[in-house]
Amino acid sequence: MVWKELSALRLRPELCMYIVVAAVIAIIFWIGAAAKLSARVPIGDPNREVIFQLLVNMIARSAPFPMAMLLAYQLQEEIFLHEKLTRTIETLLSSPITPLAVWLGKVSTVFLVTWIPTFAMCTTAIVLIGLRYMNMIIMPDAVALFGLLAGCPIMFMFWLLLSNLMVLVLREPRFLPFVSFAILSATLYRSVKTFQSHSTQDLDLLLYIVGVLGCVLVILIGLRVLTRERIVSS
User: Fold this and answer.
1) Given a cut of 70, is residue 190 above it in pLDDT?
2) Which of 5, 27, 115, 202 has its CA 20 to 30 A from that of 20?
3) Residue 119 and residue 109: Cα distance in Å, rounded?
4) Where are the domains of the chain?
5) 13-40 and 99-133 are packed helices; what angle lies between their axes, rounded to 10 degrees?
6) If you compute the radius of gyration of the chain from its CA atoms, what whole number of angstroms results?
7) CB 41 within 8 A of CB 51
């Protein structure tokens, strides 16, 4: 199902440009932040390496989720709502594919198309900052690397599943922005704590557990409430 969605996906040129411009702006922002830190902590300062390590950790742990959310808002409309407006989703639902499979296929497609440029943006920023200001590639620590490779994708998938299910079930979920804001605020709070402290493992672990349990719970709810009629009429 996901492969069919990816093979059939045709992103408009302006949407592709939006993804590229958003990634470039994010990279410039983080390089600018690194430049300010470099001016405050000159070469030779014993704290310079520690400061830049904290910056890299913050990018790896916290930058991916807001960036992915920003891109997903546009891609969800392109992938899901376009089919509903053109009524082609009715043809898809008339096939033997279950409504749950249709929903998960759409969400997984948005996840993959969004996460690939997000991951590329974060790794590019980390590499450029290390080479420009420390003359070496600064690797995130083990916890931050896990956040980049697993933790942030889990939280992002949780948000995608929850937001899509709310749209399908509630049709006009007025409190969806508040849910998105709460998840984003928790991520940004962790970002601040990451830069202020070397250790936020407990907070990270809590968020990741919530993300995993949330994904399982939302899928179980979707299994019970999603029907062909609800998807077509929403």
Assistant:
1) no
2) 5
3) 15
4) 2-233
5) 40
6) 20
7) yes
